[in-house]
Write a structure and sequence with these properties.
6 strands, single chain, 84 residues, four-stranded mixed β-sheet, 2 helices, alpha+beta
Length: 84
């Protein structure tokens, strides 16, 4: 398993090539495929995805662990799946 900032990552989804609202949809589908407690890293662009995806995921009841600025115009959102 990969690690980001010391957090064991179960799976990763890259949404840098899609635009809202598809960004959230792809992240949501990736979370649905995981087990409760698993950790997903969502690789996304700065701007609208960073503003909207974390909020939408939190609204779904999942736990935001960290938002990592990669300092290249992208971010990694680290999410723990809560419930099924």
């Amino acid at each position: 398993m990969a690690q980001i900032d010391g957090i064991e990552i179960t799976d990763t989804v890259d949404i840098t090539t899609v635009v809202c609202p598809v960004t959230f949809v792809k992240a949501k589908v990736a979370l649905e495929e995981l087990d409760d407690g698993d950790i997903l890293a969502v690789h996304m662009n700065d701007g609208e995805p960073v503003q909207n995806v974390p909020r939408s995921i939190k609204d779904e009841g999942h736990k935001i662990l960290k938002l990592v600025d990669n300092e290249d115009g992208t971010y990694d959102l680290i999410v723990q799946k809560v419930g099924d």
